[in-house]
C-alpha cells in the first residue's frame, strides 16, 4: 500500500499547472458512448477514475487509446449495454453510462456504483428523472435495468434536488430521445456546462446548462468531435489553500476564475491575497488571518468538495471558525485524523466548530476518502515534524501526481 511522507514548515513558492477536470471528463467519456464517430479529448488528467472509466467503455465494446493527455474514443463498435458489478463498484461515476446507453440503445443494465463513502448518494433522483422521460426502470440483484417504453418522447422534468449526476444522466438520455425535454431545478455546476458544450459539438441541441433550466431537443444521431475539457476547479482550490496554509506565494496556471468565486471570496475574507492574472491566479499567504464560517451548498454556493481542505486551513487560524455541511452527512471522516495532528474540532451534527492553533503536529494518519486525503496533505504542510499519510489510492482518484507538483513548489514530500 502506498503512503506519503511529508515534512511541514516550508513556505510554498513557485508555479503549478492545474490538470483537466476529473468531474468534467468522466461524464464526457460516458457521453462518448453515444457518438457514431471518433471522439478526441484533450486535457484529460492521468487518474485512477479515468482509467476505470476507460475500462468500462472497453467492456461495453468501445475502443480507447491514450497518449499523454489525449484520449481517443471510438464507440461505433459498441455491442453491449450491460456494465458488470466488477467495474461499477470501483467508481461512483460508473452510473453515468446509464443515461448514455439508454439514449443510444434504449436499453441499459448497470450495477450500482461504488466510490468514496462520504454519505448516502442514492440513485432515486436519476431513476425518477429517467422514468419521467419515459423509460421503464427496475432495480434487482444490485442492478438497475432500463428500457424505453413505446412512443417515448421528451418531457418536462422537475428535480427535487439539483443533483449533478441526475442532471447529467437525464441530459444524455434526452439527447437521443425524440421531442423536447426540459429539466427544471437542474444542477448548475461548470461540469454540466462542459457536458453541454461537448454534446453540442457532436451535434446535440442543448441550451441552458449553467442555469437552473436546461432544454434538450432530441436528435437522431451524434457524430465525432475534438474537445478540450475544462480545468479542475477542485484541484485549483486545493492548491490555493496549500499556498494559504503554508503562508506561501504560488501562481496557478490553467484555471477558470469564474469557477472559483465562492472559494476566492472566502480566502479574501480570511485575509489571503488572491490576484487574478491573464493566464491564471496568484495566491499569497501571510500570518494575519481571521477566522470565518462556511456553509456548503450546490453551485454556485461553496463546494462540498472543498470543505475538508478549508477545515485544515481553519485549524491553522487562531480563533473559532464554523463549518456547516449540507450536502453529505458523512463528510466529516477527516475530523478524527486531523485531531491526531492536534486540531481542535468539535462536531455537533452537521456543524463543525474549529478552534484554530498556531501549530499542528505531524502524525500517522489515514486518507479515508479523496478530499479527506487532500485535507491531510494541507494540514501536514502546516505541521511540525513528519506526517505519514496512508491509503494514498484515495488521493490518486482525484489528483494527478500531486506529490510531484508539491515537490516542485518546495515541499519535502516523498511517496513510499
Automatic annotation (TrEMBL):
Enzyme Commission number, as recorded: 2.5.1.7
Binding locations of UDP-N-acetyl-alpha-D-glucosamine: 92, 121-125, 305, 327
Domain Enolpyruvate transferase as annotated: residue spans: 7-406
Keywords carried by this UniProt record: Cell cycle, Cell division, Cell shape, Cell wall biogenesis/degradation, Cytoplasm, Peptidoglycan synthesis, Pyruvate, Transferase
Residues bearing PTM 2-(S-cysteinyl)pyruvic acid O-phosphothioketal: 116
Pfam families xref list: EPSP_synthase (PF00275)
Catalytic reaction list: phosphoenolpyruvate + UDP-N-acetyl-alpha-D-glucosamine = UDP-N-acetyl-3-O-(1-carboxyvinyl)-alpha-D-glucosamine + phosphate
Residues that, per the record, bind phosphoenolpyruvate: 22-23
GO cellular component: cytoplasm
Subcellular location: Cytoplasm
UniProt cross-references to CDD domains, sorted A to Z: UdpNAET
GO MF annotation list: UDP-N-acetylglucosamine 1-carboxyvinyltransferase activity
Gene3D superfamilies in the cross-refs: Enolpyruvate transferase domain (3.65.10.10)
InterPro entries reported in the protein's UniProt record: Enolpyruvate_Tfrase_dom (IPR001986), Enolpyruvate_Tfrase_sf (IPR036968), MurA_subfamily (IPR050068), RNA3'P_cycl/enolpyr_Trfase_a/b (IPR013792), UDP_GlcNAc_COvinyl_MurA (IPR005750)
Annotated TM spans: none
Pathway: Cell wall biogenesis; peptidoglycan biosynthesis
Recorded superkingdom: Bacteria
Active-site residues from the entry: 116
GO biological process, one term: peptidoglycan biosynthetic process
Role noted for this protein: Cell wall formation. Adds enolpyruvyl to UDP-N-acetylglucosamine.
HAMAP family: MurA
Family: Belongs to the EPSP synthase family. MurA subfamily.
Record's protein name: UDP-N-acetylglucosamine 1-carboxyvinyltransferase
Organism name: Syntrophomonas wolfei subsp. wolfei (strain DSM 2245B / Goettingen)
Amino acid at each position: 500500500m502506498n503512503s506519503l511522507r511529508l515534512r511541514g514548515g516550508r513556505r510554498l513558492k513557485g508555479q503549478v499547472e492545474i490538470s483537466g477536470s476529473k468531474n468534467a471528463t468522466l461524464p464526457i467519456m460516458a457521453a462518448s458512448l453515444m457518438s457514431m464517430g471518433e471522439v478526441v479529448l484533450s486535457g484529460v488528467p492521468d487518474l485512477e477514475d479515468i482509467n476505470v472509466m476507460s475500462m468500462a467503455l472497453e467492456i461495453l465494446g468501445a475502443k480507447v487509446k491514450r497518449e499523454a493527455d489525449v484520449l481517443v474514443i471510438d464507440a461505433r463498435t459498441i455491442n453491449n449495454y450491460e456494465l458488470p458489478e466488477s467495474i461499477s463498484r470501483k467508481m461512483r461515476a460508473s452510473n453515468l453510462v446509464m443515461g448514455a446507453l439508454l439514449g443510444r440503445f434504449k436499453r441499459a443494465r448497470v450495477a450500482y456504483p461504488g466510490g468514496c463513502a462520504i454519505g448516502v448518494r442514492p440513485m432515486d433522483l436519476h431513476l425518477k428523472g429517467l422514468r419521467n422521460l419515459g423509460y421503464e426502470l427496475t432495480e434487482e440483484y444490485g442492478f438497475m435495468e432500463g428500457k424505453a417504453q413505446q412512443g417515448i418522447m421528451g418531457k418536462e422534468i422537475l428535480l427535487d434536488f439539483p443533483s449533478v449526476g441526475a442532471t447529467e444522466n437525464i441530459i444524455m438520455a434526452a439527447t437521443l430521445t425524440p421531442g423536447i425535454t426540459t429539466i427544471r431545478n437542474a444542477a448548475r455546476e461548470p461540469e454540466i456546462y462542459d457536458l453541454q458544450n461537448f454534446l453540442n459539438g457532436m451535434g446535440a441541441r442543448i441550451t441552458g446548462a449553467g442555469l437552473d433550466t436546461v432544454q434538450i431537443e432530441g436528435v437522431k444521431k451524434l457524430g465525432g468531435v475534438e474537445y478540450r475539457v475544462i480545468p479542475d476547479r477542485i484541484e485549483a482550490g486545493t492548491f490555493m489553500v496549500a499556498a494559504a496554509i503554508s503562508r506561501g506565494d504560488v501562481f496557478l496556471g490553467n484555471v477558470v476564475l469564474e469557477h472559483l468565486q465562492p472559494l476566492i471570496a472566502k480566502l479574501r475574507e480570511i485575509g489571503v491575497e488572491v490576484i487574478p492574472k491573464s493566464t491564471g491566479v496568484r495566491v499569497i499567504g501571510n500570518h494575519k488571518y481571521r477566522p470565518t464560517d462556511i456553509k456548503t451548498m450546490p453551485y454556485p454556493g461553496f463546494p462540498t468538495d472543498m470543505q475538508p481542505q478549508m477545515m485544515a486551513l481553519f485549524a491553522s487560524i487562531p480563533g473559532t471558525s464554523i463549518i456547516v455541511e449540507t450536502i453529505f452527512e458523512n463528510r466529516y471522516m477527516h475530523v478524527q485524523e486531523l485531531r491526531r495532528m492536534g486540531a481542535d474540532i468539535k462536531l455537533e451534527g452537521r456543524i463543525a466548530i474549529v478552534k484554530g492553533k498556531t501549530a499542528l503536529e505531524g502524525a500517522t494518519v489515514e486518507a479515508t476518502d479523496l478530499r479527506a486525503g487532500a485535507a491531510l496533505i494541507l494540514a501536514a504542510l502546516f505541521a511540525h515534524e513528519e506526517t505519514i499519510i496512508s491509503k494514498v489510492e484515495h488521493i490518486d482518484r482525484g489528483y494527478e501526481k500531486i506529490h510531484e507538483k508539491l515537490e516542485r513548489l518546495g515541499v519535502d514530500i516523498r511517496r513510499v
